[in-house]
Amino acid sequence: MQHQPSMKKRMAIMAERDAAIQERNLALLEKKAALGERDMAILQRDSAIAERNNAIMERDNAIATSPIQGELSNTGRTQ
């Protein structure tokens, strides 16, 4: 017949298991927070790229519609 662990021993095993689960859950929460920060940084980078691209398009549009560009086009020269 096998000897059953005492109630005290079973409680210690359960407490150890619970502590390990809590540690794992904390690690998962930290990983989730880090991924959230990474995603936010990516969104900020994408927003900055979009702003830069809009500024470039506005600049190109201003150049294309400027009187100087029109004069250069009329003379057959390009900028």
UniProtKB/TrEMBL annotation:
Q: Name one GO molecular function term.
A: DNA binding
Q: Name one GO cellular component term.
A: nucleus
Annotated region (Disordered) at 60-79
Q: Cite the record's Polar residues compositional bias ranges.
A: 63-79
InterPro entries noted in UniProt? GAGA-bd_tscrpt_act
Q: Which UniProt keywords apply?
A: DNA-binding, Nucleus, Transcription, Transcription regulation
Pfam families named in the record:
GAGA_bind (PF06217)
Q: Where in the cell is it found?
A: Nucleus
Function, as annotated, reads: Transcriptional regulator that specifically binds to GA-rich elements (GAGA-repeats) present in regulatory sequences of genes involved in developmental processes.
State the family named in the UniProt similarity comment for this chain: Belongs to the BBR/BPC family.
Its protein name is GAGA-binding transcriptional activator
